[in-house]
């Protein structure tokens, strides 16, 4: 989601995940998705969205599950925590994606 706020409903129980590192990992996930949130769904064939008072703008991406482990934090998604740690080190050094 990149603007506004709203509620996403689906049988798989969507999870709103803040996309900024602000200490959110120690708290319960938000019930309503707000600006700069990622909403994850498991399975299903329908998504219901209720826009907040200021409206909502979001991008819906769907695909076949890869059936691979996921280590995700912030802008980096890898298969293992070790790969994710290494990617952050490379990002800090300026060698990521070279």
Key features?
98 residues
What is the string of helix and strand elements?
A: EEEEEEEH
Instruction: Tell me how many strands there are.
Output: 7
Rounded Rg:
15 Å
* Helical content class: 10-25%
Shape: flat
Question: How would you explain this protein's 3D organization?
Answer:
This protein has two domains: about 1-65, no CATH class; about 65-98, no CATH class. The strands form three sheets. Strands 3-1-5 form a three-stranded antiparallel sheet, with no helix packed on it. Strands 2-4 form a two-stranded antiparallel ribbon. It has one helix and seven strands. The chain is flat and about 40 Å long. Strand 6 and strand 7 form a beta hairpin. The longest helix is centred in the last third of the chain and has 13 residues, at about 80-95. The protein has about 100 residues and is mainly beta.
Q: Helices and strands in order, then pairings?
A:
Elements: E1 3-9, E2 15-18, E3 33-34, E4 37-40, E5 48-57, E6 71-73, E7 76-78, H1 81-93
Antiparallel strand pairs: 1-3, 1-5, 2-4, 6-7
